[in-house]
Amino acid sequence: MRTEPAKHLQLFVLLAAMLLAACQPAESPLLERRFIALGTIIDITLYGAEAEQADPVLAAIERDFHRLHHDWHAWEDSRLTALNTALQRGEQTPVPPDLMTVLEQARALNRSSDGLFEPAIGGLMALWGFHSNDLPDRVPDAAAIEAWLAGRPHMAELKLQNGRASSDNPRLQLDLGAFAKGVAVDRAIGRLRAAGIDNAIVNAGGDLRAIGARERPWRIGIRHPRAPGVLASIATRDDESIFTSGDYERYFEVEGRRYHHIIDPRSGYPAYGTASLTVIHTEAATADAAATALFVAGDAWPQVAADMGIDRVMRVRPDGTVELTHAMAGRIRFETEAEPDVILRELP
Ligand code: AMP
Ligand code: MG
């Protein structure tokens, strides 16, 4: 959904490095499946499962990912673009139950994030030119951004009733890019568990949920936001999601300034002050939405973390300084030659 094909090779190398860390000498056969969906490489690794038991569920998971990719695409013809067209026309539209659940979840996360995770931001993303397979190359007119802010849509204006969606604000356009991966990863884990598989990792381009601890935990690499390779690693405990939002994923530069794809709905401009932000939480959807919201929050992230019930956070600032919560400090191992400057931040 948001990674250019040219980036896949780079991503692949990174994933290979991460899996190297994850796999270590295998105690029993690992089963693996890899495919591309939601604009990234999806890598599913199972530990201690039989191929016969695993194959049908892996096939079902792969189908799910492809379906979500097509249903929720923000700019290619999809259920989501059809819903957005209807919202723009002020129409009331039937919404299938699975999408309804996702929209309700999005609304709840929008509330708990003080509006910083704002899936009603679709119109602004389009204005910035990010609703395209190519990266934008120019900053929108300030007047156009002002106009969006003047009629700024909020998730609270999305009415969900009796299986239908509508809004009185025709500018409300949905973009699920900040948490679609998380929802898809949670669903995949749900399917694995239902099939009796309880030692697995579902990795969507470096964002993942791991269940089970094998005989030793999965060790996960966190990408360095400004250099190739891994900044730090985390050994997962039973059932944890690790999600990172970064200003390096989709961006363009004009006159030496980086304009990236994580937009502050209060200013209409990319959120500055953070290069990457990593969250650990049980549920992947919440971790995904929280990583985006705390990225947008800038220096105020501890308050938003507390409001969202998140206690394990790592923020990397553009100058390389790392901020950690106490709970995260106990989990991170830096993998760079020189250890970065670290600041511990208290949660309110
Ligand atoms: P992530 O990498 O999870 O932080 O998601 C970034 C994507 O979420 C962008 O490509 C947009 O599709 C969307 N997005 C950008 N800014 C926001 C925001 N403030 N709230 C919700 N979604 C956003
Ligand atoms: Mg996110």
Task: Give an account of the 3D structure.
It contains ten helices and 17 strands. It has 348 residues and is α+β, with helices and mostly antiparallel strands. The strands form four sheets. The chain has a nine-stranded mixed beta sheet, sandwiched between helices. A three-stranded antiparallel beta sheet has the order 3-5-4. Helix 2 runs antiparallel to helix 7 and helix 7 runs antiparallel to helix 8. The radius of gyration is 20 Å and the shape is globular. Bound molecules: adenosine monophosphate and magnesium ion (MG).
Structural class computed from helices and strand pairing: alpha+beta
Query: Would you identify the regions where 5 or more consecutive residues have pLDDT less than 50?
Result: 1-17, 19-27
- Proportion of residues in β-strands: 15-25%
Number of strands: 17
Distance between the termini: 35 Å
Provide a count of the helices: 10
Q: Spatial order of the strands in the main sheet?
A: 1-2-6-7-10-13-14-15-17
Q: Give Rg in angstroms.
A: 20 Å
Largest sheet: 9 strands, mixed
Overall helicity: 25-40%
Give the SSE map.
Elements: H1 8-23, E1 30-37, E2 40-47, H2 51-71, H3 79-88, E3 93-94, H4 97-112, H5 122-127, H6 142-150, E4 159-161, E5 164-166, H7 180-194, E6 200-204, E7 207-211, E8 219-223, E9 230-235, E10 240-246, E11 251-254, E12 257-260, E13 276-281, H8 284-297, H9 301-308, E14 312-316, E15 322-324, H10 326-329, E16 332-334, E17 342-344
Parallel strand pairs: 15-17
Antiparallel strand pairs: 1-2, 2-6, 3-5, 4-5, 6-7, 7-10, 8-9, 9-16, 10-13, 11-12, 13-14, 14-15
Magnesium ion binds at residues 178-179, 243, 245, 288-289, 291-292.
